[in-house]
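Running this now, will post back.
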Amino acid sequence: NGITWTAPDGAPFNVNPLGAWQVGDIAPIYFELRGLAAGDEFSTTIQLQDSKGNNLVRVASTDRATGTPTPVRKTISLSQIKAGDYRLIVTVQHAATTVSREHRVLILKP
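Update: finished.
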C-alpha cells in the first residue's frame, strides 16, 4: 500500500496517500514533534473510531523526546476491524499541552 518515503530520521516509511488499508493490515503512523527538549516525556494516544465515536482501537504509550524534531513511529493492528469508514485520532500530551490531529481512514475488504 503506497509509496516508500525516506523519513527525516533516515528510515523508510510506507506512505499511504489514499488513507485506505485492508482488513487485517498493520497501519503505520509517522509524525514529528517539535519544541521538546531531548529527554522530555510525552504521551501518545492513538484511537480508531467508528462513525458514532466508539473507540475500536485505542493504543497509549509514554516516550521520551530526542530533541527537535522528534520522529515518532507507531502502528495499529486492523485485524479486528471490519471494512468501513473510520476516524484515526492521534493525541500527544506534554506537560499541560495537548494536541490532537485526526484523519479519515478507509478499511477495505481484502
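The chain has a mean pLDDT of 94. More later if anyone needs it.
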